[in-house]
Design goal:
5 helices; alpha/beta; 174 residues
Amino acid sequence: MDILLVDDDQVDRTAIIRTLKKSNLNVHIEEAVTVDQGLELYSKHVFDIVLLDYSMPSRDGIEMILDIRNEARGTTTAIVMMSTYEDENIALECIKAGAQDFLVKGQVTPGSLIHAIRYSIERQQNELALKQKTVELERLNKELRKRSLALEAANTELEAFNFTVSHDLRNPLT
């Protein structure tokens, strides 16, 4: 599993890396200290998940989420936002921006981190599958509307033909 860890705090990065290395997950971790550095790494490599700090110098984590989601391949990457603040408004803002999960750093345990990573990846895959199904459904609906219009046109032609034949046969009989 390829992970991009973006956090300006060396202690937090070290703790997260130690936790991930102790897990049973086979991980490759790239580190970034700023949002810009994280985006540069993201542009060069495909990551399964981005673990992202909310409060960063110069640009915050929300901006990085939005930048990732605006990229073509940005819909395939799961994002877990982490913060030292236990604030529901911040968590909601992160989820609305496109993060799959929100963790409070002081409450993160090895189990909760691994669970959040697995859950986020699964949720992102489900969201992507749902979007693909929606696109396919829209395509099928468009095709159905097209066929329905063609059928209506054929029915109109049949009615006109029926009227003409009926009218043409009525005159000789009269």
